[in-house]
Specification:
Distance between the termini: 28 Å
CATH superfamily: Hotdog Thioesterase
Structural class: alpha+beta
CATH class: Alpha Beta
Order of helices and strands: EHEEEEEH
Helix content: 10-25%
Radius of gyration: 16 Å
Largest sheet: 6 strands, antiparallel
Number of domains: 1
CATH topology: Thiol Ester Dehydrase, Chain A
Shape: globular
Number of helices: 2
């Protein structure tokens, strides 16, 4: 498997996390399913940045894709780099890469398709300007 090269500086937001004993699987490394929860935890930074209110100005996940690049052992410290990588009318992508904090090697990457959503009217809405602004910062 060829590895893509990622640079932590290419990401707008960075979130640090430590692995937990409960994250391990029977093989002694961090379970694949746990990486999605790491990425979800990091996404909260965007929610705060964009003033998501979980009612009228909210987001829902439409799709989650994750590629595993290398095993992670416990204990490890990780840094999750995130950026908005695509903008549509009501949906956008958040590209995240999980890095080993010590080596800065990418251990997994994910793309989350999110939809701007109004729970009061139960419909998608146009992308919020804050999200468009963050997308434009890395062009």
């Amino acid at each position: 498997m060829s590895k893509k090269k990622y640079n932590l500086d290419d990401f707008l937001l960075k979130h640090e996390i430590s692995t937990r004993w409960k994250d391990l699987d029977a093989f002694g490394h961090v379970n694949n399913a746990v990486f999605l929860s790491y990425v979800e935890d990091a996404r909260i930074l965007f929610f705060k940045r964009w003033n998501i209110d979980y009612k009228e100005r909210s987001l829902i996940v439409a799709s989650a894709k994750i590629d595993y690049l290398m095993q992670v052992e416990h204990p490890s410290k990780l840094i999750i780099g995130q950026r908005v990588s695509r903008i549509g009318n009501t949906s956008f992508d958040i590209h995240s890469v999980v890095f080993n904090k010590e080596t800065l090697e990418a251990v997994c990457e994910s793309t989350i398709v999110s939809v701007a959503f109004n729970f009061i009217i139960q419909k998608p809405v146009p992308i919020y300007q804050d999200i468009i602004n963050d997308f434009n910062k890395l062009l």
